[in-house]
Write a structure and sequence with these properties.
With about 190 residues, the chain is α+β, with helices and mostly antiparallel strands. It has a single domain, classed as Chalcone isomerase (3-Layer(bba) Sandwich). It is about 20% helix and about 20% strand. It contains four helices and eight strands; from the N terminus they run H-H-E-E-H-E-E-E-E-E-H-E. The longest helix is centred in the N-terminal third of the chain and has 17 residues. It is globular, with a radius of gyration of 18 Å. The relative contact order is 0.18. The C terminus is likely disordered.
Length: about 190
């Protein structure tokens, strides 16, 4: 009986010590605004395939319904992106290792065209604790406006989870952007 209590106490203590704190909206916004602690994988803006561009859009719970006005696409534009990952998840993007550590953020900075000067939005994934979202590898999805001043959606977003199901073997993250070695590490600079 005593051993069982000790074991339970030990498990609870270790869980509390090793659980990464969940960043608040303000924490996420501050990190994305500066891109502090991120590694950028795309040397130049990468064009988005039409089907990806149509799915990765601003989502706002106040005004959008999936398939509603926020999901329209202008046929004449070709969107471009930069892809970033936090330092802690960098090793998981290379080689055979596929599991990302809790606290990793994978971020897509989306521009309305390949030559636009300002992003129109950010979409991201935050690796959460085991059991948070088993359907999508325990990832929390989020969207932000282009100036990184407001989180427009956050949580288990169905449209994000549906798209990322095809990447289940690589911890629900596409690695198609990893073919080019990261061009720079970013520490507290927005350049």
């Amino acid at each position: 009986m005593r051993v069982t209590r000790f074991a339970l106490l030990w498990v609870l203590t270790c869980s509390a010590v090793y659980a990464a704190p969940v960043p608040t909206d303000a924490d996420l916004l501050a990190r994305v605004k500066k891109l502090e602690g991120f590694v950028r994988f795309t040397k130049e803006r990468t064009p988005l395939e039409n089907r990806v561009d149509e799915g990765c859009v601003r989502f706002d719970y106040e005004t959008d319904n999936l398939g509603g006005p926020g999901h329209e696409r202008l046929a004449h534009r070709i969107a471009g992106i930069h892809v970033y990952v936090t330092e802690g998840g960098f090793a998981s993007t290379k080689g055979r290792q596929t599991a990302f550590p809790v606290g990793t953020i994978v971020l897509k900075q989306k521009f309305p065209t390949l030559d636009a000067t300002e992003p129109e939005l950010y979409t991201g994934m935050l690796k959460r604790e085991n059991g948070y979202n088993p359907k999508a590898g325990d990832w929390e999805f989020f969207t932000m406006n282009g100036s990184a001043t407001a989180v427009t959606a956050r949580g288990r977003i169905d449209s994000c989870m549906d798209c990322h199901q095809q990447y289940a073997k690589t911890d629900f993250v596409t690695k198609r952007y990893v073919s080019v070695f990261p061009v720079r590490r970013i520490f507290g600079t927005s350049k």
